[in-house]
Amino acid sequence: MAIFSIVGIGIMAIMSEQLIRVKTLENKIMASWVADNVLVEINLTKVEQTENWLQGSDFISNKIWYWQSREKIIKSIGIITVEVHSHENSNAPEFILEGYRVIDE
């Protein structure tokens, strides 16, 4: 009986860890979708970017995702960085996506 109890507790611990990892993976995937959407919107609507952070939020999968983007210009290429956070005041982003655009001179 004791062996079954120990095995049962071990299986519960493994299942709990797997659920945490699945939730983390789900958050990373949703954050990547938000970053992709923001980067596409910036490129399609030609939103003016600066070196200061432009901030916004999106509602995806019953959760509000907070994003910020900025552009650094190096020669004739603008490098756009999009950071996605799961909480408004979070220091560490869930996902970072970088894209580029050619600047006409």
From TrEMBL:
Chief place where the protein resides: membrane
Domain Type II secretion system protein GspI C-terminal as annotated: residue spans: 25-100
Classification via InterPro entries: Pilin-like, T2SS_GspI_C
Gene Ontology biological process terms from the UniProt entry: protein secretion by the type II secretion system
Origin: domain of life: Bacteria
Gene Ontology CC: membrane; type II protein secretion system complex
Compartments it resides in: Membrane
SUPFAM superfamilies from the UniProt entry: Pili subunits
Protein name as it appears in the record: Type II secretion system protein GspI
